[in-house]
């Protein structure tokens, strides 16, 4: 495939349509909402009702949709029209097996790296094995899947890759250091790789949601000695975090944001939604870093 002119930073990328859309972590939350949104686009091709949702966008509808789960057999409410495949991001062999299976469905046009885990705790008390596992899943696993799918997109001259991050990757919060670092790391991979793949018609973007009401608080992994030196502050932070998420945006709203870089002719590096993102990001450009850190921690009772 001939390269696009690399000296033109605003060159439109080739539109993607058809092919296979892959969404990791599709059994619940943002992943499930995303495969549901893609399934609606797929169904609309049969009615002729396809339309873009924002200015400067093109229509997109996949021929096949693949969602992943560690154990697809346990999914109780699968989305119609979605093929579910097993994937454990902490297991390189699982990534290899998944990629081989997924590529048999047809050429991939879209990859949404959504699967991940959450983790909270003071840095001093985070177990080493828990840190390693978090980075295996939230960073190395996502990069591993991308490395398997990207060559197919590059060779065909078109593709969109979306990394689902978190606004905490841009605005760190105390007692979330490991999670913050993992989301900042995946954003770094994405931002650097954008320039590598753009000449081949592939776009990479990061979507950073703020507080999301997906019930994550009930399954959050916590590492803290509540009777130790950090216990009281950690409890305060967690109470405020859970309250913010209970009043956060829906997974469906995040899925709408994920569709934007997929359909955009010129995908932006970063998309953000929720937690007053349209205010917070511009504010961060004019306030000192220390002031932004104070505001974020203050919002969480610290």
UniProtKB/TrEMBL annotation:
Gene3D superfamilies according to UniProt: NAD(P)-binding Rossmann-like Domain (3.40.50.720)
Region (Disordered): 45-73
Keywords: Oxidoreductase
One GO cellular component, as annotated: membrane
GO molecular function: oxidoreductase activity
UniProt keyword annotation of Transferase present: no
InterPro entries (UniProt xref): NAD(P)-bd_dom_sf, Sc_DH/Rdtase_CS, SDR_fam
Stretches with biased composition (Polar residues): 45-56
Pfam family of the protein (one): adh_short
Claim: Oxidoreductase is one of the keywords in the record: yes
Protein family per UniProt: Belongs to the short-chain dehydrogenases/reductases (SDR) family.
Protein name according to UniProt: SDR family oxidoreductase
Species the sequence originates in: Corynebacterium macclintockiae
Record lineage: Bacteria, Bacillati, Actinomycetota, Actinomycetes, Mycobacteriales
């Amino acid at each position: 495939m001939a390269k696009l002119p690399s000296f033109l930073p605003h060159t439109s990328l080739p539109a993607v349509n058809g092919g296979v859309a892959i969404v990791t972590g599709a059994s619940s939350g943002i992943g499930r909402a995303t495969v549901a949104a893609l399934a609606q686009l797929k169904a609309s091709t049969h009615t002729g009702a396809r339309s873009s949702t924002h200015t400067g966008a093109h229509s997109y509808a996949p021929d096949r949709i693949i969602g992943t789960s560690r154990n697809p057999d346990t999914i109780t409410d699968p989305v119609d029209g979605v093929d579910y495949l097993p994937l454990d991001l902490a297991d390189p062999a699982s990534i290899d097996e998944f990629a081989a299976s997924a590529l048999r469905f047809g050429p991939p046009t879209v990859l949404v790296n959504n699967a991940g885990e959450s983790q909270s705790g003071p840095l001093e008390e985070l177990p080493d094995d828990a840190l390693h596992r978090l980075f295996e899943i939230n960073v190395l696993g996502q990069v591993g899947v991308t490395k398997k799918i990207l060559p197919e997109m590059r060779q065909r001259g078109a593709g969109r890759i979306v990394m689902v991050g978190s606004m905490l990757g841009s605005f760190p919060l105390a007692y979330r250091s490991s999670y913050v670092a993992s989301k900042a790391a995946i954003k770094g991979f994405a931002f650097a790789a954008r320039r590598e793949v753009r000449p081949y018609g592939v776009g990479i973007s990061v979507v950073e949601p703020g507080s999301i009401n997906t019930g994550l608080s009930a399954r959050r992994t916590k590492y803290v000695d509540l009777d130790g030196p950090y216990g009281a502050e950690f409890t305060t932070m967690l109470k405020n975090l859970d309250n913010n998420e209970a009043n956060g945006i829906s997974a469906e709203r995040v899925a709408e944001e994920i569709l934007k870089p997929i359909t955009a002719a010129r995908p932006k590096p970063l998309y953000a939604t929720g937690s007053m993102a349209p205010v917070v990001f511009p504010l961060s450009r004019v306030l000192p870093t220390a002031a932004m850190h104070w505001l974020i921690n203050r919002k969480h009772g610290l």
